[in-house]
Amino acid sequence: MKKHVITAIALLTFGAGTLLSSAANASPMEDQKSFQEFFKKRFKDTEFSDYKNGIYSIHPESRKQWEEIEDFPPYEIAVERGEELWNTAFTNGKTYADCFGEDVTAVRAKYPHYDAENDTIATLEDDINKCRTANGEKPFGWKKGAIADLSSYIAYEGRDAPVNVKLPESEKEIAWYEKGKTFFYAKRGQLNMACADCHVYYSGRMARSETLSPALGHPTHFPVYRSKWGNMGTLHRRYAGCNENIRAKGFKAQSDEYKALEYFQTFMSNGLAFNGPGARK
Amino acid sequence: MLNIRRMLSVAAVFGVLLVPMAAVADDAKMIEEGKKISFDTKKGNCLACHMIMGGEMPGNIGPPLIAMKARFPDVAKLRAQIADSREMNPNTIMPPFGAHGILTDDEIDKVVAYIHTL
């Protein structure tokens, strides 16, 4: 027994050490490759393309229940409300299509991307509100409600488009990328945990009765309807939730921290397909 | 003189008997409190990650907490693991319960007393 315990610990520690060290000073391309390889090795039964389904890609026990939920998706109303928003003109007569282009199916996969003009990461939600204020409308609240409705509709129409964030190359792009990467691997909060602790090194393990999802594919299916919330929420809402669970202060939705994190996480997920909105526990 | 000697010998007898009995009672109380703190989701929440006999819905992030006397003959080492797990493994996911003030010194003593019985 004693020996078993020791071996288990040695394995755990070893597992945690390898990715961390290889992630320390590599190029974004190398990072992406070792990140994806890590999960391919860890979950041998999971098809690469299936990581877009989050926890259900590695947890057959809950998958069936989820598939039943997807028969009558709880995000359907949000998609409908979002469509109405998309088709309703602002008071100045313009519409979202004037900001995003006529083809709504092409919008989702453009985000996130580096916005050179403003030296920031453009996200779908941020651009929704930019579009509103540019047209004299009040911005939506950031984490739920109308913003999640419109984002749901755009995600729904943009399903199956490949995740293909452009490789960060310029100094400034790399600075944003590194900011997101550092955030992802940094310990924080009173409980002193990193995103990577739960969603890389111990992905597939259980914290109490919650199986930890792989970080690969995290951003593909947002916004999500979460039973625990009882409504839709954006990716940044989820980020703040996970930060608060480890007793760290959550950052604001669309803060530079979360934009960088979304940029890093989505670049790591290149090669998957967008499939939002999603339904989760 | 005789009285004093008698008193001393009485004290000696009681001393031998009383001290350990009190200690046993104290230990039992400490262990019970330690168990409460370990299971409390707002305190130790050890079950989030460790299987512990008698605890419901344990996670499996860390090793099962069993055979602790064999694994930790030195209680000080066990205390160090709980007070600041980073001393053993700088990258550990296990929270530094003492160093980050998640538990007080007194609470850690109780948790250690309990965990060492497992």
Would you kindly provide a written description of the structure presented here, covering whatever features stand out?
The complex is a heterodimer of chains A (281) and B (118). With 281 residues, chain A is mainly alpha-helical. Chain A has one domain (1-281): Cytochrome Bc1 Complex, Chain D, domain 2, CATH 1.10.760. Helices cover 48% and strands 7% of the residues of chain A. Chain A is built from eleven helices and seven strands. In chain A, strands 6-5-7 form a three-stranded mixed sheet. In chain A, helix 4 (76-87) crosses helix 7 (146-157), helix 6 (124-134) packs across helix 7 and helix 8 packs across helix 11. Chain A is globular. The relative contact order of chain A is 0.17. Chain B is mostly helical. Chain B has a single domain (22-115), classed as Orthogonal Bundle (Cytochrome Bc1 Complex, Chain D, domain 2). Chain B is built from four helices and no strands. In chain B, 26% of the residues are buried. Residues 10-17 of chain B have low confidence and may be disordered. At the A-B interface, helix 1, helix 9 and strand 3 of A face loops of B.
Keywords:
heterodimer; A: 281 residues; mainly alpha; 3-stranded mixed beta sheet; 7 strands; B: 118 residues; Cytochrome Bc1 Complex, Chain D, domain 2; 0% strand; globular
In short:
Chain B: Residues 29-118 form the Cytochrome c domain. The complex is a heterodimer of chains A (281) and B (118). Chain A has 281 residues and is mainly alpha-helical.
Low-confidence stretches of chain B: 10-17
How many domains of chain B? The number is: 1
CATH homology superfamily name of chain A: Cytochrome c-like domain
Per the CATH scheme, the topology name of chain B is: Cytochrome Bc1 Complex, Chain D, domain 2
Supply the CATH architecture of chain B: Orthogonal Bundle
Shape of chain A: globular
**Rg of chain B:** 19 Å
Mean pLDDT of chain A: 92
Keywords (chain A): Electron transport, Heme, Iron, Metal-binding, Periplasm, Signal, Transferase, Transport
Family (chain A): Belongs to the SoxA family.
EC number (chain A): 2.8.5.2
Binding site for heme c 2 (chain A): 195, 198-199, 242
